[in-house]
Amino acid sequence: MTPAATARAHTNIALVKYWGKADTTQMLPQTSSLSLTLDQFYTDTTVQFDSALTADEVTLNDDRLSPQASGKVQRFLDLVRPDGQFARVQSTNHVPTAAGLASSASAFAALAGAASRAAGLDLTRTELSRLARHGSGSATRSIFGGFAEWTAGTDDQSSVAHPIDETVDWPIAVVALVLNAHQKKVSSRQGMQSSVDTSPFYPAWKDVVAHDLAAIRPAIATHDFQQMGEILESNAMRMHALTLSANPPFTYFNGDSLVAMQAVQDLRDAGTACYYTLDAGPNVKLFCQTKDLPKITQTMADLFGSEHVIVAHPGPGIQFLSSPAKF
């Protein structure tokens, strides 16, 4: 039996989106991407390998998963499994699962950290980023705090994330609107592949991402909030245009998503600087400056109820916890 290891990883929200794989086996993306890690949403995972086990035992939020439901975790463990030993995995997700809040990013980043440590590996953060990518593409960025960029690369070695600014010392915040915490009907993987295969606009998307990355890096470096906000908002809408132009067309928006987007535009027209983004789900994330939080949170609470409004700030990279969970 190996010593148990516990890791915590936070979700990230992409400012310049990853949407589409170039290689589904190696999980290589079509484009690079850039994100901000958030402090409010995270996953804690403990892993212990035990030669006495005859199969992996995976628990998520205190519920034991069936072998079928835990198949993806089992395949990930195969990448680090010592001497063919099976593992106990205990994971707690402080994120609504599969609702467009990057739960898979924090989940597989935490699993990469805990499983590799439990297997006796002492990986660098670059190596952890590469490993996490095999579970979830966006997990490669959750190894790092603050702003991080995932370089698409051309093979397993070169497709990794690196930090852009982990010590975010300017007053920005993210207001997450949890408008629907239920399982989404079209998974991110399904949606990406459909967009790549059928949207006539997908070739142009690659040019959009290259342009937006080149523009947003200096905006972050100079703390140009308006420039960053304009880029992240337009990038999100162009990503979602791919889903609307796929065959058959689909969308991750719901009615409340559209209400929230209009409310952001109204706030901006009235002089409050804020910008929205959405990933593969209906939940809207608002980028703002901390001085504007009272106005923005009150506006959104009036629309959706205060229980659906969560304020987040830039968060840390992967952490290894000294007191692992008890099995």
UniProtKB/TrEMBL annotation:
Q: Does the keyword Glycoprotein apply?
A: no
Please give the name of this protein.
diphosphomevalonate decarboxylase
Whether Lyase counts among this entry's keywords is yes
Question: Which is an annotated GO molecular function term of this record?
Answer: diphosphomevalonate decarboxylase activity
NCBIfam families listed in its UniProt record: mevDPdecarb (TIGR01240)
Annotated source species: Levilactobacillus tangyuanensis
Where the record annotates domain Mvd1 C-terminal, the positions are 174-308
Pfam families documented for this protein:
MDD_C, MVD-like_N
The entry sums up its family as follows:
Belongs to the diphosphomevalonate decarboxylase family.
EC numbers for this chain: 4.1.1.33
Under the heading SUPFAM superfamilies, the entry gives: GHMP Kinase, C-terminal domain, Ribosomal protein S5 domain 2-like
Q: Taxonomically, what lineage is the organism?
A: Bacteria, Bacillati, Bacillota, Bacilli, Lactobacillales
InterPro entries named in the record: GHMP_kinase_C_sf (IPR036554), Mev_decarb (IPR005935), Mev_diP_decarb (IPR029765), MVD-like_N (IPR053859), Mvd1_C (IPR041431), Ribosomal_Su5_D2-typ_SF (IPR020568), Ribsml_uS5_D2-typ_fold_subgr (IPR014721)
Q: Which domain of life is it from?
A: Bacteria
